[in-house]
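Person: Please comment on this record:
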Amino acid sequence: MKRILVSAAILTLFAPSAFAQLKLPRVSPKSSVMQTVGLTDVTISYSRPGVKGRTIWGDLVPYDKVWRTGANEATIITFSNDVTINGKALPAGTYSLHTQPGKSSWSFIFNKKAEQWGSYSHDPAQDALRVDAVPTSGPLVEWMTFSFPLVGTDSATVELAWEKLRVAFTIGVDTTNQALAEIRKTLAGEVKEWNVPYGAASFAYNNNIDNKAEAMKWVDQSLSLKETFFNLRLKAQMLARDGNIKDAVTFGEKATAAGKASDTPGEEIARWEKQVAEWKARA
């Protein structure tokens, strides 16, 4: 009886459920990259295969067949807001990102079924969007990598690099209209802090948005709450941009006085005084 119990205990140690607890490193390690583009978060989660001396394109990764764009599970990409991909609309959400490599042209495939193993169960009927891209060459990259080499307020480039190949697509976002909608919603309510309407006016000014009268109301709202070096300077800059140099000088001098009465760094005030002096010479 004891012998039977010992044998049963040994078998239990090697049961499949015991092996299921074993955690080992993946041959192709998992990775993720996140980039905020304007007000939109873009996250890519993928596994990174290595070259390891193998022939990749047209061999390990066949041409003209749908590929998981990595290893293990299909690559996943998430957009927090609606975007465009190479100019084509794609709703906010999470997608599996497949590709179809070719010798001279690739397709990026955004599939509505986010979680799937490889591309074996890829269903073209679930494709939300397909866009084409042209591959280029570059220095050897051992481990497949996604990156965002170009990022702006309204767009970004996503690049896939592996072996000596590069292929990319462009994400477009409607940052300006999203930001304006958020600004108008916020300023329609009760605002007690000067920096809130100041931030709105500064965004409009720095991005050269065509709402000058509205932006001027925002900076005036900020000034009504509290006059500071920053909102006085912004008011002067906006007036100068509109050609009202005389009033720009007036507000510029008020900004200088406010800066000297506060803890504004001296070098910043000095640069500002130089600007005001240039306007005085033109007035």
